[in-house]
Queue: 4 jobs
Job 1
Amino acid sequence: MIKKLAGTMSMIVMTAALLAACAGGAANGGTQQQSADAGAAGTDDGASGAIKKLGDEPLTLTFYSSGPTFTDVEFKTMIADPIHKKYPNVTIQRISPAATTTPEEVLSTQTPDILFTSVSQRLIRTGAFEDLRGLIKKFNFDESRLKPIAYNYIKDATKGHGDQIYALPFNVNQHILYYNKDIFDKFGVPYPTDKQMTWDEAVELGKQLTRTDNGVNYVGLVVDNLQGLAKSLGLAYVDRETGQAAIDTPEWHRVFELQKKIFDTPGYVAPDGTWNWTRDNFMKDQNIAMRASWLANMVGPLEELRQQGVEFNWDIAPVPNFDDKLGTTREAQIHSISINSQSKHKDEAFQVLEYLLSDEGQRTIARNGRVPAIINPDLEKEFGADIPVLQGKNVQNVFIGNPMQEHYQHPYEADISVRLTEAAEGMAIHGLDVNSAIRQATEAINKDVETLKTTIGQ
């Protein structure tokens, strides 16, 4: 009788303990902050229904970046190290395929858990993006903390796919004007100021610095060609509804005319025919006086170069714009973080995303030269504080002028952008006038569109 009573009491105690544990687990997972404090990833552990914490066992999450510049140093500083510090059992391992491998090939043969991209229709078509709505709800993620310019672009980019949310913004990539102070000093020309210039003012300044000296061809102003200039006005390449070329407009004519004016600067095109000046010309050859370009496109690589012992005297100024657009800069590019729809660690991966978008995580990226994606003006005051290459630079110029939300990128846009490069080359090398360049590019784009309709639809 005593043994029977003892067994019954034992069962009661065990049942009570189990119920208490379940109740406690539900309470601890009730808010984003509580979940983060507990380290809970929210993954169901088989039939038991127990909550599996990030700290229970070693976990490796794979990471793949496609599109945006994201150096290995940036990956380590902004993602791998902070996550390992937050969750010591978690390792973020970067997948680095060969440069010739397309994103489609990577995503069809591998299953990276976390994706770092600029959300595009091309990548959405791969089916690799998890719809994050369920995870956002499960972890009570506060979407109101995200900058509208960033989050609205992502949501706009996925229209036509229902109400899915395929990504969260990681950083806002803005444009600035880089300039080589050594070239300005060499030719006795005053540096750009902290005041935003018009494009006409920038072109005139560039003319003073475009010359050949001791066999070196110096170029005064480089603007990332037609594609870069179009971002000053937020211009789409193709019509959103019809998919036809949309470059024969008054706004696009302004862009072409400005680009032609830059190309026609004596000495811009080198004697060997070089016209498409790039990041390497600014950083490594150091023959570009001013380059209007993305923030992320240059800061990370310049820091890597510094670590290799290569430094020069450069600084940043507000990016110019057309005279009636002063006060705005260019379209901002949104670098986003996503979860692979085939990942076996979706809940854990979302916990990683959640931390990267916390004040602490976003402070890390701000101090290392990226503009945060969350609403917290105090973080901008710390911009660049931890990255040596930005020490002593006029980093406040990053925030002069309001960036625009990037235009909706039609599924055909990435495929037909080569036609704008061809148009630029035609004006730079072959003497095409603006009207001819636009007409030829329009015809080429519309032919491409007919082909693309049969291959990717829309």
Note: Confidence is low (pLDDT under 50) at residues 1-52.
Job 2
Amino acid sequence: MKSKDRAGAGRSIDMIHGSIWNKLPIFALPVAATSILEQLFNAADLAVVGRFTGKMGTLSMAAVGANTPVTGLILNLFLGISLGANVVIAHAVGEGRDDTVQKAVGTAVLFSFFAGVVVTICGEIFAPMILRSMSVPEKVLPLAVLYLRIYLVGLPVIFLYNFEAAIFRAIGKTQMPLMALVVSGALNVVLNLIFVIGFKRTVDGVATATVIANCVSSAFLFWRLMREQTVIHLARQRLRVDWATLKRILRIGLPAGIQSAVFCVANIVIQSAVNSLGAAVMAGSSAALNLEYLIYASILAYGQASTTFVGQNDGAGKPDRCVRVMWLCLIESFIVCGAFMALIWTFAKPLLGLFNTDPRVIHYGYVKLGLLFSGYFFAIVYEVMSGYLRGFGISLLPAVLTIFGVCVFRLLWIFLYFPSHHTFRQLMMAYPISFGITMILIGTALIIRRPARRRN
């Protein structure tokens, strides 16, 4: 069945006709803004429990922070899987197959919700065991378990939001997920203050606020899908799992999800190494993290733009246009990310001073930013190239190479090199070197596979 209106009304992007360069930032910048806002709202949760829970402030912050590796691992796994839905839908849109698109939309919506239910049940059973295995202090453990149990209740709607966002992004409607996040994020902050200040709650207050806010964002996007006048319209009769479509989504998305999950594991190990260097190093590294995320969110956004634009154009049988997408993504991401890096680097010390005025903390944050920024141009290349390969449905190869080039290398660096070179600068050198190695691996794979040439 061929689509009569694949772009549709509103703010959908026609990815298979006309110029590309001016459409990429329209797609990528809202995606980056969405990721950055999520980070800011998460920081607001931590700030509220830290400032407004009185004597419980320190313990409450520690409890929320202790859960970050667990929730990050789960969310990154399913964010990666949602990318599979994005690719399948984008490819079908390019082919003009409405029937395939609508099967994928219904499948993605149902799978995400019920996968969230399954993970919630398992998490509720093993929550105390998981946190104890991470050596969470006994004083913090009860609050950490309480936060995690409430947060887990919201996983079905959190997963649903991420998959709904992937559906909208498949046709270029990146503003819609951003709009939903702005509303729910603002609601989350307000509810945090009401529960914590008004009702005198602690971690249970911010966790409950997070669940309610995510219910609102996922319900909003679900309502929008039901009202869509484009090919991604969610019809009630299509709200069922098509197993062949789910298999395609998982084949593409699962490797990306596992890659993201392994990233989290590697980062946990790196954080442990940072912790061994003292409080000033820990504070400086944390301060730099808030600034560096502004850049990396933009890099990831252009990687997703590469995936989605290539997916649609491959489906439309336009391999030469796919290659053009990759090169324009590289050029534009160099310009955008380079401008952000120059701006942050110019004001790095005053910005780091907003988090902590200790000169040692500012110094260590400055060192980390310098080494990370030196490697981010390598990261741009491999993220865009990985996105390009995924747009053709080649997902396992870039995932394996990235896990090896980034995660395995960093673990080897920490366990084999760092013990005899026990300084912060030497530890942070793992980042630019791993980015460079991964760029070489992904670039070599792209040259060997040449997916666009095989489509000709």
Note: Residues 19-261 form one domain.
Job 3
Amino acid sequence: MKKYDAIMIGFGKGAKTLAAEFAKQGKKVAMIEKSSKMYGGTCINEGCIPSKSLIVQAGKRTFSDAINKKEEITSILRKKNFEKLNQNPNIDVITAKASFVNTHVISYENEKGTKEIYGDYLFVNTGSVPIIPNIQGIEHTKHIYVSADIMKEKEQPKTLAIIGGGYIGLEFSSMFARYGTQVTVFEYGDRLVKREDEDIALHIQQILERQGVQFEFKSNVLSVENVNDSDVIVTYKNKDGNIQQLTVNAVLLATGRKANTDGLHLEQAGVETDARGAIKVNRYLQTSQPHIYAMGDVKGGLQFTYISLDDYRIVKDHIFGDKKRTTDNRGAIPYSVFIEPTFSRVGMSEEEAKNEGYEIKVAKLAVSAIPRAHVNECKEGVLKAIADAKTDKILGCVLLCTASEEMINFVQLAINLGLKTSDIANHIFTHPTMSEALNDLFGNF
């Protein structure tokens, strides 16, 4: 049985970066990935990169041309990720399905057969998979997609139903609408993105409605069925309790994601999972077995590639460093939703800050008041900041505007450094930029 210093299961951001670190220190590493189409992880192949490629191209290329360009980008990045590890003499890249035999032994199976290998350290970075809702007919109806699959279709649907009004659903609704697809979003709740403040959710809704997206709130999709080879009938109960039907070319399931642990046989290694199936970890990302770690989506929590990367930093520090990095001291974590314009947030919402007992003050700025927004010809949106009324420290910020995915990182740094609203209000920004609007936003306190 071949022995390794470290075995990585899953070619995600955390594992691939950690594999290179182990190899750099002269350690022998096995990287096991079940599919040659997933080298580099979900982000590169099925998530962030392909979806943002299609989003950026909306309104600039035809859907078919955009799909081809997306495939070109993902193929290049997938190859680079594979070669970076495969060319390292200390790393064996194994394309196979892996499972635990015991606390140190991994079995992997591919077309060449089944083998077992031993690892001193083991790392699980297998990501997450879509949650398939319990809707009648969903298993055998054609033209039902999850996000990864719909991005592989060459033909643009003229009509699209999206089940779920969360962040993934919103991104795809905005994207497809801007390619000219008629989009209807079915949302079980009474409004969008409930973790956001109601005023911000309303802004997002109004922007998307102006792009042509239609929303069915308080709706419950009951069944789907094919009416012919090209259409799907969606039967749903609307907000008034009436049974309605909508015929569309395609249905996108955007009802959340769960930890990808099926087939790993974690129980054979004594690795515990929570009620949702995610791997339980401590603040150092150790599982119930101290030499087995979990990184990224598979451990639950925020599902972002940059969290998987920071997980790598925590694990690296725990094994090779001074053990100071933990999940408790990450600081504020920003996120962006790539609708048009982009929605970004960091820190607390207004409602969260109030619930935490803060005496707060709130500042807002309409995007139409930003000179660069007029230059960009994108004047929709709003900026909002929340601060502690007693200390003037920044508690949170929402940016619904072009380039917010870049701007939010500056605000995150300010929060993590404990800066005050006046520090940003008086900061010197280049001109004309969207970032300089932060002067005005934080100057409104």
Note: The first strand starts at residue 2 and ends at 9.
Job 4
Amino acid sequence: MKTHKVRTHKSAEKLAREDQLAWKIASVAADDVSLEADVVEMIGNRIIDNAAVAAASVARRPVESARAQAVAHAFRPGATVFGLAAADRVSPEWAAWANGVAVRELDFHDTFLAADYSHPGDNIPPILAVAQHCGLSGAALARGIAAGYEIQVDLVKGICLHEHKIDHIAHLGPSAAAGIGAALDLPVETIYQAVQQALHVTTTTRQSRKGEISSWKAYAPAFAGKMAIEAVDRVMRGEGAPSPAWEGEDGFIAWLLGGPGAEYHVSLPEKGEPKRAILDTYTKEHSAEYQSQALIDLARRMRPKIGDLAKVRTIVIHTSHHTHYVIGTGANDPQKMDPAASRETLDHSIMYIFAVALEDGGWHHERSYAPERAARPQTVALWHKISTVEDPEWTRRYHSRDPEEKAFGGRVVVTLEDGSTIEDELAIADAHPLGARPFSRPDYVRKFRTLADGVVSPAEQDRFIAAVERLTELSPQELQGLTFEALPGKLGSSAAHGIFDWNRKQGGAS
């Protein structure tokens, strides 16, 4: 890996293209190095993981809405949409939109945390949609996904967005554009322009994940993927982008990040170096914010030691800066303590999550968020006894570059009514690559089958898994099989309409 210094340059300095971050990203994406076997294996795992979460979410209202918008844009050859028959194709950017929402809705797929946050699996829907539409092979798809993961992980390691209240999808737009460019084997110049376009049109604020969190939390990454496809398409037609995107005098760093004096360091693979960043990422065993994964496992472990939860006086979670200020009491969000809060808000309340995990001894992607579950009096009472504090050592470990000491959990101190205390800590989730039960292919398959049960027929599940097993051997026609068709009646029943199906709402009037 080579580390690149990235800072603002005045327009008069005329920063050469070859010295710009976007060009360096494009060069990595365009470098067609062989994929190593463990990387291909993990790409397959994450395709399965995405499909698992999509199967569990196909009937949820945000996913229904996104799918309805996509169906209004039928197109040939087009791309597939989760839940629909493979023959029902839509324009690739709309397939990426619908599938991106389905993958993201339950906050249940992979994650990578470093200087910033990310869900790198969000790269897969747009890259897969383009691969299907353009008739690419499974090998080309894998090449694109490896590039998308590489660029996103490298950006997340080097550039912090959240401290400036910029949402993490500002790294996703460029990484998805780079992955699409790699899959299509586009030249560096084209990928360079597309990466910059994608950055410009996918930069938004972190209010997406603050206060009254709405379904836009799931839509935001899908929007980035959709914009990445459009950016690549425009550039392929000869259009350009504002340059230099990151380093410009009025660019991303100067006005949205650290300012004209800021300096970032982004490490990228050198020419000929394999793209292995996907192996640094990790999936979720539980449908909740990643910082809660280890704490759910810890609650499960502490539950027998505590005994009668009615005798708990207080619970204090000593944890990292991010956990305290984003999903803890340090956020100062009253919504995080509100039994009437949305699912998206409860997903970002470690106080709620820890209380339910203590009571239930685990976590469920639907039952744990049910309104009646959140409103249960004893749950509310326990929930409101929980607080978080930042511990500098947990913050240091959270940001450590050493995987052996990097930590996303915390130390929990339970004080009982008699004044006695029970303490325990857990640094990483059980399913983490270094955890007690690291996920491997059988775990991903089991997750898929569990979440697809009753939604996707066993035969269709088998067909999908068999296709993933042959990923790099898939022909363009076989690539259309990297989806699943839901059983009849399992796609929801929303009667809502919008602009795209206005005529159907009006009974066909023009």
Note: The chain has 21 helices and nine strands.
